[in-house]
Amino acid sequence: MASEIHPTALVHSNAKLGDNVVIGPFTIVEDDVIIEDNVKIQSHVVLAAGARIKKDCFISHGAVIGTLPQDLKFKGEKTLVEVGERTTVREYCTLNRGTSASGITRVGSDCLLMAYTHVAHDNAIGNHVIIANATQLGGHVHIDDWAILGGHVGVHQFSHIGAHTMVGAASYISKDVPPYVLVGGDRVGFSGVNVIGLQRRGFTEETIETLRMFYKLIYNSGLNVTDGLARAEKTLPQIPEIKHSIEFIRSSTRGILRGR
């Protein structure tokens, strides 16, 4: 099907549009933009040079995707920002291009970025991630698959948020958040395993209980993290979720979020 472009929209002649693309009033699509099939873009959106929008995305009013990174080290190099298939970007979100550090800012497939979310340069966001209103991500943040961030969360640059984690609203994340957990509170810290989220995604009760035992060793046993990991390797079943959690914590460069 042919694309539908509102007469007030400004679409650069070099922009590449797939089939059945809808572009709303007063939207700007710059040079070096690729929009794949079945993308719906509402009014007053800016897709700057370097934006790559995959199939079946929905971009809401006022979103700005692909503008320059807010990084003084950036020297004008050609970089990208990519939004994965079936992702929704709601009103007034801002997604900046990458820098020479990685070359790309990437949002995965089947994500929901609610209004006023900011995704800074060189972020790597996985699939099925939900980020609620006005959450702000610093540069080089990594968020793994199925993570959920509440509204008004702030994430410090270079932080890593693990898979299947839920971060409570108004939290400030300055350390890495391990996978499968709940974090939040006035003094942000570990609150337990994300039991309801894991149940909804089909994790067995045995797996969830093993994760509870693992994080009890890490946060509530009186052991330091190194000794807690060693104890976990000796005493717990080495199921994939435990192996992943151990590797995540051992590879953390910022250290993991504290217990409450």
Spatial strand arrangement across the major sheet: 1-4-7-10-13-16-19-22-25-27-28
* CATH-assigned fold name of the largest domain: UDP N-Acetylglucosamine Acyltransferase, domain 1
CATH architecture of the largest domain: 3 Solenoid
How helical, in percent, are the residues?
Answer: 10-25%
Number of helices: 4
* CA-based shape: elongated
Count of β-strands: 28
Q: What would the average pLDDT be, to the nearest integer?
A: 97
Describe the 3D structure.
The protein has four helices and 28 strands. It is of the alpha/beta class and 260 residues long. The protein folds into two domains: 4-140, Hexapeptide repeat proteins (UDP N-Acetylglucosamine Acyltransferase, domain 1), CATH 2.160.10.10; 198-251, Udp N-acetylglucosamine O-acyltransferase, Domain 2. The strands form three sheets. An eleven-stranded mixed sheet has the order 1-4-7-10-13-16-19-22-25-27-28. A nine-stranded parallel sheet has the order 2-5-8-11-14-17-20-23-26, with no helix packed on it. The longest helix is centred in the C-terminal third of the chain and has 15 residues, at 205-219. It starts with a strand and ends in a 9-residue tail after the last helix.
How would you sum up this structure in a few lines?
The chain has 260 residues and is of the alpha/beta class. The chain contains four helices and 28 strands. It has two domains: 4-140, UDP N-Acetylglucosamine Acyltransferase, domain 1; 198-251, Udp N-acetylglucosamine O-acyltransferase, Domain 2.
